[in-house]
Every structure is written in C-alpha cells, then in structure tokens.
Amino acid sequence: MENKARTVLLLLSALFAGAAGAAAPPAANPDWTAPQAPFKIYGNTYYVGSKGLTSLLITSEFGHVLLDGGLPENARQIAANIQALGFKLNEVKAILNSHAHRDHAGGIAELQRLTGAPVYVRRPSEAVLRTGKLVANDPQFGTKGADFPPAQTVWIVSDEQWLGVGSNRLQAFATAGHTPGGTTWTWEACEGTKCLHLVYADSLSPVSAKPFKFTASKAYPEALADFEQAFQRLEALPCDVLITPHPEASGFFERIAQRDAGKPETLKAEGGCKAYAQAARAKLAERVASEK
Asked: Taken in order 77, 66, 204, 219, is the CA torsion positive or negative?
C-alpha cells in the first residue's frame, strides 16, 4: 500500500511542477481536443472524454449522468463517445460539473442542447455556467479567452448533498480553491457484489491570472482556507478509484493500461486521494512562499 501511495504521490508531484505560474490559455494542450475511444472504467462508469480532458458517463436503466463537458470543441466528440457505447443522448438526465472553467464546462451548453439535461453545480459556479464568464473572485479571472457558451438550465446543489438520477446516487463535496465553486463528486460502482468508491476529485492546482495573489486577494479572501478544507475533505473520503478532470493528475491512463494488461488491481489507487491532496498542499505552499 505504501509503495502504491508513493507512486501516486510522485506522479502528482510531477504534474503540479510549474503549476504556481499564470493560467495557460484555453486549448494550449493538444491532448485536450485529441480523440479518445470511450471505455468502461468500472461497473456502470465510463470514460467519454478526450485524451486530455475527462468526461464521465454514469449509467442506469432509468437515466444517465454526465460529469464535465470539456472544451466547446469537445462536445460533439463526447456525444459521439456516448453513442459509441450504445447509450442514447436523450437518456442523459443530468450534467454535473467539477469547476466552471472553459476546459471542463465549455462543452456543457452544447451537450445540454443535445441531451435536454439540466446542469447541477454548487452556488458559486451557477452564475458562471449561466453567463459563460468568470467572476471576479475566480483566481483565473481576466485570463484571455476564458469565456465559453452559457448553459440554459442550471440548478444548485449544496455541499454534501446527494443527487439521485435513476438508480445512481452521487454526493457533492465542496473542494474549492482552484475556483470558488470547485466540487468533488463521489459514488459507488459495482460489478456483481464487488462495489468500489469512485471519487472524481476536482482540480486543486494553485493556478491564476498574473495579478492574482492567493495570500492577498480582496476578491477571494477565503482562497487559502478553501484549499485547506478541500485537502482535508479528500484525505478523509473513502477512495478506491481516483479520477481527476485532467487524467494525468491521477496517473489515470497509466492505471487503465496496467489493468488492461492483466493487472486489474492497479485500477485502484490506494492512498490516491490522500496523495493527491498532499501534493496539492505542497504546491500551494510553494505558491504562498513565492508571493511573500
């Protein structure tokens, strides 16, 4: 167990290297729009995103949940991936979001149009989804090209609220800091009698537009406290399978590759949520030190 946690921590430390700087422009990474064949993760949970931006489909006989919508240009690809798995778009009954940035929420408006599904977010993200514009307390506010198409029907969920869609029950946890509305979603997926706790842990990188300081923001004075709450939340969550909005942040595709090579136990990242939080806490400390 210790070796697995150490491996995850090394992967995450590498990911967060250099994350203390300014925000990258949208679609700066070609992997964000690169096609990725959809596949089953575990039980009723499927990967339907691009190579570099996670979108998840959680299915049931009475309606499906879509988690995150990638960039605007990813929406059609996500829809095609859902259909390639044999599911109908109109069977998607809810669209959830990790945080309201263009690379995870930009495709939601088009996916909403294609599916007819309402969007569910925590209150700090609601205005951003409805307008497609970042608000002043977002650390990346002012980043060029950050706007995205607005969603039409957006409902608010509260911290620790359960959301039932069909036979699925997902729980929302406030894990803010990267954005004020950052949300981690958890649920159980089962194969036969074996059920695993899946955690879609939101981004925790201390990335911002150049003028923003996490230690001295009048627009978002709770930033450091929100980050610490997020770290503690993730460290305490039951966490068998860790998934993140940027798959490399959790070594996700490496674990999938090992699973597909005949090592099914590698899907589980033992200590993954704790390692993810610890790596983010260390990177935030570096950012704080750089601001003094």
From this structure: positive
**Other Cβ atoms within 10 Å of 91 Cβ, number:** 17
The count of other CB atoms within 10 Å of the CB of residue 36 is 20
Q: What is the pLDDT of residue 27?
A: 53
CA distance 266 to 286: 31
281/274 Cα distance (integer angstroms):
10
Sign of CA dihedral 122, 239, 225, 133: negative
CB 130 within 8 A of CB 147: no
Say what the pLDDT of residue 39 is: 98
Q: Which residues of the chain have pLDDT under 70?
A: 1-28
Over the stretch 259-291, which tens digit does the pLDDT of each residue have? 999 998 899 878 999 999 999 999 999 999 999
The HSE-up count of residue 110 (CA atoms within 13 Å, CB side) is 19
Residue in this structure with the two tokens 């990258």, named with its chain if needed: 24
What are the tens digits of pLDDT across the range 151-162? 999 999 999 999
**Domains delineated in the chain:** 2-291 (3.60.15.10)
| DSSP calls for the chain | -HHHHHHHHHHHHHHHTTTTSBPPPTT-SGGGTS----EEEETTEEE-S-SSS--EEE--TT-EEEE--BSGGGHHHHHHHHHHTT--GGGEEEEE-S--SHHHHTTHHHHHHHH---EEEEHHHHHHHHHS---TTSTTTT-TT---PPPS-EEEE-TT-EEEETTEEEEEEE--SSSTT-EEEEEEEEETTEEEEEEEPPP----B-TT--TTS-SS-TTHHHHHHHHHHHHHHS--SEEE-SSGGGGTHHHHHHHHHTT-GGGGS-TTHHHHHHHHHHHHHHHHHHHH-
